[in-house]
Amino acid sequence: MRIGVLTDHRLVAVAGDGSAVEIGQLLETPATRPGLDGVTDRLAALADRLEAVRDYLGQPDAPRMPVAGLRFLAPSPRPATVLAAPVNYRAHAGELGDRSPERGALDARALGLIVLAPASVTGPAGEIALPDLPGREFHFEGEVAVVIGREARGVSPAEALSHVLGYTGLIDVTLRLSEEGREERSMRKSYHTFTPLGPYLLTADEVPDPAALSLELARNGEVRQRGSLADLIVDVAGLVSRASAMLPLRPGDVIATGTPAGVGPIEPGDTLALRVSGVGELVMPVVRRDW
User: Fold this and answer.
1) Predicted pLDDT at 44
2) In terms of domains, do 116 and 139 share one?
3) pLDDT of residue 192
4) Is the pLDDT at 242 greater than 60, yes or no?
5) Among residues of the chain, what percentage have pLDDT more than 70?
6) Strand (E) positions, 210-262?
């Protein structure tokens, strides 16, 4: 099942025939809050109500609307925590030469996880807005992201996947190091709009083995990255376990699994298109920030 969040905060299930069905009414709880906080509450409820939602979608009288024309936020628009795995594909290790702090010597097993600012999250209805930093370069990094559905504290790898709500696409936009600019990585990845998510959430019950997921990222129509989660150095279960040992993971939290080889520069006027198997295509225009 693919779940989307509309810009008016409604949750919908997106079908393969180009239709969408509103499902938020099936996920209301006494704790549901208004706005984006309510979306997070509904995502938490969804983890335990997948069967009821699926039954509802199978009813012939479930009201449907065309996806065309709908505008979507990130499928987890207000995560409390966003983490990312650095150097989690061997082919990506050291590909940036001197602009890579590790230069191929370390990978995700030793480096752990990066913290990204939750306010950097945007979605399909948004855009990637690059700040005006003359002489600096920004790069795309296509990734598959994990969205948490149940609280996780210190879970083992064997338990970890039971805490996953689903998977989505993530473009990790990064300000690269230069001789003059040596900012910490969390800052270079945390500018406003630098973490696009989407377009939808593919629920975990559709993905018995996350290693089967693959991604492809194109810049201006040219495919630049291809990867499979089967090639991760630290797999999804290992990432969730490590993250849950660092801090409590809550519904809606996001973990980016890492990027394959092929990262490259972007500039205003570009368009990035990230396709994750089973999820769909996240298309993001790149513009110059106006502030």
Assistant:
1) 96
2) yes
3) 98
4) yes
5) 96
6) 214-219, 222-228, 254-256
Other CB atoms within 10 A of residue 4 CB: 26
- Where in the sequence is the domain holding 59, given as residue range(s)? 2-72
Tell me how far the alpha carbon of residue 205 is from its chain's centroid: 18
Query: CA distances (Å), 156 to each of 108, 240, 266, in order?
Result: 18, 9, 38
Distances (CA, A) of 279 to 201, 226, 267: 6, 15, 26
Residues 6+ apart with CB under 8 A from 201: 2, 3, 4, 75, 76, 147, 165, 166, 167, 168, 279
Instruction: Supply the DSSP symbol for 6.
Output: E
**What pLDDT does 257 receive?**
98
Judged by DSSP in three states, 63 sits in: coil
* Last residue within a domain, chosen from 38, 72, 106: 72
Nearest in space to 273 (alpha carbons), one of 285, 258, 260, 287: 285
| Confidence check: pLDDT of 246 > 90 | yes
Quote the pLDDT of residue 31: 86
| Shared domain check, 256 and 135 | yes
| Per-residue model confidence as pLDDT tens digits over 205-239 | 999 999 999 999 999 999 999 999 999 999 999 99
> Which residue, 25, 12, 23, is CA-closest to 67?
12
Calpha distance 189→115 (Å, rounded): 9
Q: What spatial distance separates the first Cα and last Cα of the chain, rounded to whole Å? A: 39
> How many whole angstroms separate alpha carbon 58 and alpha carbon 282?
27
Say how far apart CA 284 and CA 172 lie, in whole Å: 12
CB 176 within 8 A of CB 139: yes
pTM score, whole prediction: 0.95
Cα dist from 217 to 14, 135, 244, 273, whole Å: 22, 25, 29, 6
C-alpha 227/C-alpha 231 separation (Å) is 7
